[in-house]
Automatic annotation (TrEMBL):
Keywords: Dioxygenase, Iron, Metal-binding, Oxidoreductase
Protein name: Dioxygenase
Cofactor binding: number and manner: Binds 1 Fe(2+) ion per subunit.
Matches recorded under Pfam families: RPE65
Cofactor: Fe(2+)
Organism, scientific name: Novosphingobium pentaromativorans US6-1
InterPro entries: Carotenoid_Oase
Family (UniProt): Belongs to the carotenoid oxygenase family.
Record flagged with keyword Cell wall biogenesis/degradation: no
Length: 495
């Protein structure tokens, strides 16, 4: 369990901060909102060794307007959150296991009702969604951040689940999404769904996976979708025995399923490789008969809280991600693919992002956070709370195989980095790196803005919260043109 003194300790309040303290400057034109989702324990977990992915969802927003920034933080009011609040205690058991919940809330045949919506956000047709891969989206009011309940596209959505990492095609505005365990707990059905920019479902393709696995993220190209199936496995017996949803099987091969975006189930082709963990992707593209996928990839179990099937201890050293490129030949006669390590000596956090305006197209730059051991660390002020200190953002040039970095300082630990373009028509990579940092010296959260072309010059601006906000899983930037966040906070009374 988290210590009460660190950034992972529960922080069970909602917040509205008007005109946050700003150090440095917020660039002109940076108008919109950074919306982030994470988890926090509204009530302590039933099991001390449970996954932090089982925390109640919490959504927060940094709203940028002409150099001023307002902050709002709200619980995501899922059915599960409301049931726990009514009972005043934790009714739910291990991560994604209804058999371990108290019977009146188990929902064994409707497991999506137990979702926490704690992983990511996405926007479609003016609606803001909080997402977790075990359920349909939870709709959130973009003005108040109040939860509006599960959203199933007027009942048309055909899977019990919806990934936390859908992709928006920048040319069509389509939301391309999927759900695995789509027809019930531990089911081997995967449903790919394409939703147009107006929120109508235009295509649904029902697929089978080689084995039931965590398919946390996927990738799109202009012509294909790519599903990684890897090491985390489950089955109904495991769940009925009351165990945590996933176990790591180091014998399980990695499969990549590649499907033409307009293909049918029998057009799905599976490529097979050695045991790996592909939790997140950077981007992918199709060139002729070749599909290329870039991703930070682990050689072993990434998460200590999902136990190994063979009983072996979790190995932090083997569980580091390296940036790799997978190359698939659609003309090949066998099911193999090529794997290349692009930055061999540089383990990274696998929260990879690209300039979303080029999703599905070949991108030159990839962004993620990492620990730069050459930079100073103030151990006295960091204390023991920070386990791995992620002190840098990397701008990875996938073409020249070079890297430039932003260093946050000796008392700061970084969360996921997000790229914001300088303008809608700026070149790829011309824009800002933004993300939250945990300042361990002051025990407060800061939002950092740096220039993505000159990251080594340091932060241009910092938005300082007067408290420690919960640690984010994923966040996204939406310009005012992409989503209407309503009047400035504090201005509602003047409407
Ligand atoms: C991940 C996160 C999740 C989850 C499954 O980072 C995988 C991977 C925050 O919840 O439920
Ligand atoms: Fe994720």
């Amino acid at each position: 369990m988290a210590q009460t003194s660190d950034f992972f300790a529960p922080q069970a309040f909602e917040a509205d901060v008007i005109d946050c303290q700003v150090e440095g400057t917020i660039p002109d034109g940076l108008n919109g909102a950074f919306v982030r989702v994470g988890g926090d324990w509204a009530y302590p977990p039933k099991h001390a060794d449970d996954s932090p992915f089982n925390q109640d969802g919490y959504i927060s927003r940094f709203r940028f307007r002409n150099g001023r920034v307002d902050y709002t933080g709200r619980w995501i009011e899922t059915e599960r959150y409301r049931n726990n609040r009514a009972a005043g205690r934790q009714l739910y058991g291990y991560y994604r296991n209804p058999y371990d919940c108290e019977p009146e809330v188990a929902n064994i045949d409707e497991p999506w009702r137990n979702t926490l919506a704690n992983t990511n956000v996405e926007v479609n047709a003016g609606r803001l969604f909080a997402l977790k891969e075990d359920a349909p989206p939870t709709e959130i009011d973009p003005v108040t951040l109040k939860s509006k309940g599960l959203f199933t596209f007027g009942g048309d959505y055909g899977s019990q689940t919806f990934t936390a990492h859908p992709k928006v095609d920048p040319a069509t505005g389509e939301l391309i999404t999927f759900g695995y365990e789509a027809t019930g707990l531990a089911s081997d059905d995967l449903v790919l769904t394409i939703i147009d920019r107006d929120g109508a479902i235009t295509r649904e393709t029902r697929l089978k996976v080689p084995y039931v696995s965590m398919i946390h993220d996927f990738a799109i190209t202009e012509g294909h979708v790519i599903f990684p199936v890897f090491g985390y496995v489950t089955d109904l017996e495991r769940l009925k025995a009351g165990k945590i949803h996933w176990t790591w099987d180091r014998e399980a091969p990695t499969w990549f399923g590649i499907l033409p975006r307009d293909g049918e189930a029998n057009d799905l082709r599976w490529f097979k490789g050695p045991n790996r963990a592909i939790v997140h992707t950077f981007n992918a593209y199709t060139r002729g008969d070749t599909v290329v996928l870039d991703a930070p990839i682990f050689d072993n179990n990434p998460f200590p809280f999902f136990p190994s099937a063979d009983g072996s201890e979790w190995d932090a050293l083997k569980s580091r991600a390296l940036i790799r490129r997978m190359i698939f030949d659609l003309n090949s006669k066998d099911d193999g693919y090529r794997e290349e390590i692009l930055f061999p000596d540089l383990p990274v956090i696998d929260l990879g992002r690209v300039d979303d305006r080029f999703m599905g197209r070949e991108t030159r730059y990839a962004y993620t956070s990492f620990n730069d051991p050459a930079q100073p660390i103030d151990r006295d002020r960091l204390g023991t709370g920070a386990r791995r200190v992620i002190n840098s953002y990397g701008v990875f040039d996938m073409h020249d195989r070079t890297m430039r970095s932003f260093y946050a300082g000796p008392t700061h630990a970084l969360q996921e980095v997000t790229f914001v373009p300088r303008a809608a028509d700026a070149d790829e990579g011309d824009g800002w790196l933004i993300g939250t940092a945990s300042n361990y010296a002051e025990m407060r959260t800061e939002l950092i803005v740096a220039d993505a072309r000159r990251p080594d010059e340091g932060a241009i601006g910092r938005v300082v919260l007067p408290f420690r906000a919960n640690v984010q899983i994923h966040g996204r930037w939406y310009s005012d043109a992409q989503l209407d966040f309503g009047p400035d906070a504090g201005m509602e009374s003047q409407k």
